User: What shape does this take?
Amino acid sequence: MDQPSVHPVTWKRPPVLFTHTGWRRAIYAGALIYLVLAMQSIEVDWQRVYLGLDRGWKFVEGFLTPDFTTRWRDISEGLIESLTMTVTSTVAGILVSVPIGIGAARNLAPAPVYLFCRGIITLSRSFQEVIIAILLVAMFGFGPFAGFLTLAFASIGFLSKLLAEDIEACDRSQIEAIRATGASWWQVVNYAVQPQVMPRLVGLSLYRLDINFRESAVIGIVGAGGIGATLNTAIDRYEYDSAGAILIIIIAIVLVVEYSSSYIRRWVQ
Assistant: This one.
């Protein structure tokens, strides 16, 4: 007579950290208790929330009925300023990021250069754009110059880090094949590394262009120029229809960059 199977009918993934069921339940219970206590510590003014809902609905109404004509001069000037900051800061960031990214790649740069470039990347990525904008506005005053420096500084850390990681992930066989021909360091970079990372660099640059345009609207609120200053003024004056028009323009430009980037990457490849 055949013996019944002792194997489990369904497969269950084994726990990764804690194998004991009691420890897992205790951790889940502790996390739930902490979440409840943390939510209770938040002071909520329900009257202010009620008034905020009314103002929020007015903003939604303004977004649904945007006004592009009343403040078009201010909107166009702020938009041109944002686009100028976005393009120039992205180009400057790319030009500076390429040598820093190459220096931050362990398989191409010696240790001193690697550590120095990694330090620059860490410094650039340590601060959010708004904090950098506040510091630069205090140093250089209100206007697009502070916004340009802010976006360029943030672009350096973003592009350099991802470029260095792509270089380190390159196919080593191609690099060794070029080196075996007696090629110099620059020839190895140009003929073995550059063809592998160029499509990725183009995609990252377009993505950073998108980010810089959106960030230009944020840093403009703290005085770094761009469409953000116009948006902040419209909201302060309760001109929600003009604010809705500005937001629609921002969304439209981001969509154009998003859809065009795929075609550009395909063309580069």
User: Anything to note?
Assistant: The first helix runs from residue 21 to 40.
